[in-house]
Each structure stands twice: as C-alpha cells, then as structure tokens.
Backbone:
C-alpha cells in the first residue's frame, strides 16, 4: 500500500509542477508590478509620493463657483548627491491668489568644468495639495543641460486651484535636482564610505543642499574620468 | 518491483556511517536535526549581534560601535534571526514531525530535501561575508539600511549589499524547495484514512505556511533582483532620477514582509496547539475553527502589507482599507487564542516546561497582539512609526509567538527525538530566566517608544537613559539564559531518563505510537488510522 505506485508518482509530479509554476509566476508578478503599480495607483487613485511628478490639471480647476483666496507658496531647492550644481529659487516665498497664473524662477549654476545634464523632480508638501497645484510651464518637464560654469534662470508658471481644501493655507513646492548619469551614483558610493562617518562626527549627518565638501571633489574626479 | 525491494530492506539497516550520513542525507530525521542545529548556531550568532546592540544602548553616547556598524548589526540581527534561526528551526521540526504525524515513511522528495537544507549553510556564509567584507580595504560601506533594504540607501551601500542580495536568492530557493516538498508530503503521502480534517494542527499550520512561502519568497527575490539591476546595470526600477519609484520597493518588500511574519508565527502556533491538549488532558477545543482561523490568518495576511507604510502618503481610502483589514486579522488570531484557553478550561493540567512556554506564549503573544492593534490604527501609527514602540511590539509577537513556540517545541519533542527526557528542573529554570529577561528587555521599550525614542539610531537623548539601562540589563539576562538552553539540549542528547513511546501522559497521535527515539526509517508500512 505504501510504496509509490505509478499513480501517486504522477500526481506528485503534477503537484510539483503546479507549485513550481506558482513560484515562478510570483517572481514574474514582482516584475509585472513595475508597470502595474503605476497603473493601479492611477486607476484606484492611490496617491503616492512618486505620482507627485505626474501632476495634472484638475478638471474643476478654475471652477467659477469657487471663490478665489490668498495662499502662501514657498519654494525649496535641493541638490541630490552627485550633482555639482548650485540651485536656488529667486524668491523663497510668495502670496498668490488661487486660480491665477503666477511666474517664478529658479537659478541653477554648474560649478564643475564639465557639461552636465540634470533632471528636477518636484514634490508638494503637504502631499494632499499635490493635485491642486498645476504647473503649466516648468523646467522640470525636460532635462536641463548646463555648460561648464554656466548659470541659467529656469522658469516656472503655475496655478493653484481655487478648490484647494480650506485647511491648506500654505504649501511648499520642493525640487530635487538629480544627475541623470547613473555612473555618478557609483562614483559617489565609493566616496561615501568615509564621508558618512565623518559627517556624523562633525554633526552634519544630512548633507546640506549644494554641499561643497569632499563630495564635489569626488565628482570632479569622476567627471574627468568619463 | 524494485521500489518494493527498497522499502522492504529499509527497516533493517541503520543510518549510514561517517560524514556521508549528513552530507548525502535523504532521511527526514537527519535533515530535520541538521536544520535545527543550524538554527541553533544562527540563534547564537543573531543573539550575539543583539547583545552588541544592547551594550551600545546601555548608555547615551557612542561607546562601542560607530553608527554604520550599529545599523549593520541591526540589519544582520534581523536577517539572521528571521532567515537563519526561526525559519530553519520551524522547517527542521516540520521535517522531523510531519512524516511521523501523518504516517508517511519520509518526505515526498528526499533529495530535494537535502538540497534545500544544504543551500542554507551556503547562504549563511554569504550573509556573514556581507557583514565582514566592509572591514577589509575596498570592501565598501556596511549595510546600514536595516533588514528592509529600502532604496535609495540600499543602492548606495557597498558591495556587501550584493552579498546580501545573493544570500536572499539562496534563502529564497531553499525555502521554496522546502515548501514544495512539505506541500507534496502533506497532500500526497498521508497514511490511508488520515483525512485533511484529521491532521494535527501543526501539520495544518505548515501547509498554510508552505503556501505562503511559495507565494511571497519569489516576490522578495524579484525585488532584490531589481535592486541588483539598479545597482549595477543602470536600470531605474527604484531610482527617481531615472523615473523609478522607491516606494515600489517598499510595496514589494512588505508584500513579502507581512506574510513572512505569519510564516514565522504559524508553525510555532501549531506547536502550541499540539502541546496544550496533551498537558490539559483534553482534546483541542474547536479543531475546525482553529483550522479555519489558520487559513483566514494566511489569506488576510497576504492583503494587509501596506500597514507598514502608512507614512508614505497613500490616499485616505487606501490607508483606511489597510487599517480595517489589519484589525480584521485579530479576529482569527483571537479565535485561535480563545480555542487554546478553552482547551485548558477544566482540564487536569500539569505544568511541565513545554506547557509553561505555551501558557507564557498565550499571555505575552496576546499582549503583542494588542500593541499590534494600536499600531494598525493609522493616526496612532503615524505617531509611533519607527519608534522603539514598534521594536517592543514586534519582539513581543515574534519572540513569544515564534521563538518561544520553537523552544516549547524543543522541550516537547526532544524526548521523542533523542529518547531521553530533558532535565525538568533545568527546563523550568530556563523558562523563568528567559521570561524574566525577555520582559525586562522589551517591556521598557514600549515606554521609550511612547516617549519618542526612534529606532535604528545608535545614540539617544539622556532622558531615555534609565529605561535603556533596564532594557540592556534585561537583554544580558535574556541572552545568557540561552546558555542554559544549550546545556539542556547537550545534556539530553548525551543521556537521561529514558522516554517512553508516549513520552507525555496524555499524549495522543501517530508519532506517539513509535518508539522514542523513532527508528531511522519509520512508517515503512502505513499505520492504521482509527
């Protein structure tokens, strides 16, 4: 009764194949999540930080029934590690009326002797305001190229929706400029080893925006290598 | 028939001699033993890293380890305990006990069983390498991410992360093979008459666990593979600069990570469900509802992962769903705990070490469950997120639910495995020292967390000094108590009062019809199921 007859061996094989199939299917599922996740978030309206870069004009933007009011918009600029640029808003803070078009600009300067392409990633704080903040013209929509030592003014035109929830009186638009070359990240990694510890000792664990110290030196070396 | 001949002679020869017995083993008992010895070694390794962590936190300031090394220890402690200690120990008990319990001669796929064990030492070597590589010149940075391996930090750390990624791959393959083996064994090789609803609860918990593992381990493997690609092949799965999304990694990780806690919890709960009826001398109360709650825990457990990520900025609808689903899990878990309590009700109980552990688990695991309900509530969680409260919570659930469950299993089955009774006095001594040490370590961490002490940080404000000192003293007691555990195991293996077939007075089940220790090949003819 006990020794495996042909039937049980066959049913075992079927089970093994099915289970292995499930395992492989789940591995593929993980990769399938890359496109599906974005789709799912859009369809189900699950806002996430990542979707902040895909802001759209609200359909009810400028709805005549909503009253215009004053809100404060603050501007923030961060340089990601590995980008030897200087980057700051021309004005830190403005008061704007909802539903009206506003123009502001940021200044970016390439501190290195190499031509560098960067990409700005926007985000809004509080995130609940993201969908009410519409950029009709923005330097973050394209990659920005700066020649060595070049300084450039970068334009931004935006509208804050009149249907912005009443509890939001002030919002912050924050840009992080990233170096689009992934090579630089590698270079940075080599430089980070000592740096993290050193920064801790000097009390500045988080690097300030546009930090000059050893990091930019590393990038210089790297850029020459490339 | 050749197979018939093989089975016929199987009972007559003893185990093979020398190293081949272990390296080439296809015997479920030997492989089970190796799994558990491996788990014990890893338990001490993971415990040692925890001791360094608590020693560093004994006083405010940085005394022993630098911040990167501290975080690397935190990472290693978690990975070693989860993948090295708890999962292999549970798998070892599955190997030993499932064939005995369901009347099967061995695991269904003995050679694959050998492979799934021997992948583990290889993975362990890789894991240890990932820890020591940064100490060598050119070794890169320590893995300072914590076990969650969140990018972008995990993309930036040195080559030790690559060792870790391949460790996860090996562990994943090992777990998936073991799970396939366990499912095929349970579904395909039960003795005639052993219907699904007659199976011991321990077998049920492992059936669910094995399915969970097959569903989640490949997702983690996929996620770390993407991490590897991002690190070396210029892809941008999780790199915002290239259009990727780091939050996606968190979703993938916790899609694995949350069911993983049920993988850790369910088998020990099955052990508790085997212990309580025997020491209360009553059949398990509500067998069917316990099976139902195991299935419910596994199923709902797959659908609640984002409660680890309330702070990433999900919509109100999404967090509300994850909150409600998470709180729902407390219903089947509560049902299981109530079944255990009802089993003890009016039973003629005796309090040997396994039973002490079982009762301790019911009390302390429920406590961990309550803090879990607190953390499931979104506004509270946003307050407690990444605080020591979370550390206290998951140690209360995982140490009691998983580790103590396994300890209970060791005391419960050690006489069956070795044929010798363990020293009851020492067992009770171990129970009380470990329980006191554990509570002294982790109870104050609730207060620390509520007062605002963050986790995974090497230093802390002096206002947290007293509770941290208590916690560190508790940790020392807790850590040292495991030497008693080790001594008991060695002593029991070397000799002691002979155990009877039944071992325990109230014991019922197929495994107690075999002698203690069972012969090298057991149930070569299928038993009669009454």
Residues:
């Amino acid at each position: 009764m006990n020794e495996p007859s042909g039937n049980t061996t066959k049913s075992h094989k079927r089970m093994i194949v099915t289970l292995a199939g499930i395992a492989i299917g789940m591995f593929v599922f993980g990769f399938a999540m890359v496109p599906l996740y974005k789709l799912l978030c859009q369809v189900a309206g699950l806002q996430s930080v990542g979707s902040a870069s895909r802001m759209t004009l609200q359909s009810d933007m400028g709805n005549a029934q909503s009253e215009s009011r004053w809100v404060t918009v603050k501007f923030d600029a961060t340089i990601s590690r590995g980008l030897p640029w200087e980057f700051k808003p021309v004005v830190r803070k403005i008061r704007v009326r909802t539903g009206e078009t506003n123009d502001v600009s940021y200044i970016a300067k390439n501190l290195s002797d190499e031509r560098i392409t960067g990409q700005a990633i926007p985000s809004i704080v509080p995130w609940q305001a993201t969908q009410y903040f519409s950029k009709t013209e923005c330097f973050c929509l394209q990659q920005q190229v700066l020649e060595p030592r070049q300084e450039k003014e970068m334009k931004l035109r935006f509208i804050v929706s009149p249907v912005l929830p009443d509890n939001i009186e002030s919002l912050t638009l924050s840009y992080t400029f990233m170096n689009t070359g992934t090579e630089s990240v590698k270079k940075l990694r080599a430089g980070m080893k000592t740096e993290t510890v050193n920064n801790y000792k000097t009390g500045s664990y988080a690097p300030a925006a546009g930090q000059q110290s050893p990091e930019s030196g590393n990038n210089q070396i790297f850029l020459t290598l490339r | 028939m050749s197979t018939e001949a093989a089975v016929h002679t199987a009972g007559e020869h003893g185990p093979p001699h020398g190293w081949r017995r272990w390296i080439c083993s296809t015997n479920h008992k030997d492989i089970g033993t190796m799994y558990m010895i491996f788990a014990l070694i890893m338990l001490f390794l993971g415990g040692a890293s925890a001791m360094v962590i608590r020693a560093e936190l004994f006083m405010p300031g940085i005394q022993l380890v630098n911040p990167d090394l501290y975080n690397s220890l935190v990472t290693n402690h978690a990975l070693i305990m989860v993948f090295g200690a708890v999962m292999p120990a549970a798998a070892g008990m599955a190997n030993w006990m499932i064939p005995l319990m369901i009347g099967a001669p061995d695991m269904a796929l003995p050679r694959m069983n050998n492979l799934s064990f021997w992948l583990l030492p290889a993975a362990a070597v890789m894991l240890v390498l990932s820890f020591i590589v940064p100490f060598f010149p050119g070794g890169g940075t320590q893995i300072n991410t914590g076990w969650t391996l969140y990018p972008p930090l995990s993309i930036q750390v040195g080559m030790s992360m690559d060792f870790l990624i391949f460790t996860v791959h090996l562990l994943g393959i090992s777990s998936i093979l073991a799970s396939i083996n366990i499912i095929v064994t349970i579904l395909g090789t039960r003795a005639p008459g052993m219907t699904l609803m007659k199976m011991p609860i321990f077998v049920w918990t492992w059936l669910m666990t094995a399915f969970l593992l097959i569903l989640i381990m490949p997702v983690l493997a996929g996620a770390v593979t993407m991490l590897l690609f991002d690190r070396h092949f210029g892809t941008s799965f999780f790199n915002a600069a290239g259009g990727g999304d780091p939050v996606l990694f968190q979703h993938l990780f916790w899609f694995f990570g949350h069911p993983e806690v049920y993988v850790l919890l369910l088998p020990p709960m099955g052990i508790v469900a085997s212990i309580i009826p025997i020491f209360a001398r009553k059949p398990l109360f509500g067998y069917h509802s316990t099976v139902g709650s195991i299935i419910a825990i596994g199923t709902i457990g797959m659908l609640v992962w984002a409660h680890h990520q309330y702070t990433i900025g999900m919509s109100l609808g999404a967090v509300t769903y994850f909150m409600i689903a998470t709180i729902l899990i407390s219903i089947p878990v509560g049902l299981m705990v109530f079944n255990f309590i009802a089993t003890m009700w009016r039973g003629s109980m005796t309090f040997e070490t396994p039973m002490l552990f079982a009762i301790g688990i019911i009390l302390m695991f429920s406590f961990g469950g309550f803090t879990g309900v607190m953390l499931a509530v979104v506004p509270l969680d946003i307050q407690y997120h990444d605080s020591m409260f979370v550390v206290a919570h998951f140690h209360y659930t995982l140490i009691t639910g998983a580790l103590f469950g396994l300890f209970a299993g060791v005391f419960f089955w050690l006489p069956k495995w070795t044929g010798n009774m363990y020293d009851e006095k020492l067992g009770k001594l171990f129970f009380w020292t470990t329980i006191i040490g554990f509570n002294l370590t982790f109870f104050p961490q609730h207060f620390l967390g509520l007062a605002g002490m963050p986790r995974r940080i090497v230093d802390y404000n002096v206002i947290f000094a007293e509770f941290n000192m208590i916690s560190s003293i508790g940790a020392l007691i807790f850590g040292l108590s495991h030497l008693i555990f080790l001594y008991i195991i060695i002593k029991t293996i070397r000799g002691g009062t002979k155990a009877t077939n039944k071992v325990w007075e109230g014991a019922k089940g197929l495994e107690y019809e075999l002698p203690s220790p069972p012969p090298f090949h057991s149930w070569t003819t299928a038993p009669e199921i009454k």
About this structure: Residues 48-64, 192-226 of chain A have pLDDT under 50 and may be disordered. The beta strands of chain A are 70-79, 85-89, 93-97, 101-110, 116-125, 133-138, 144-146, 151-160, 170-179. The first helix of chain A runs from residue 6 to 44.
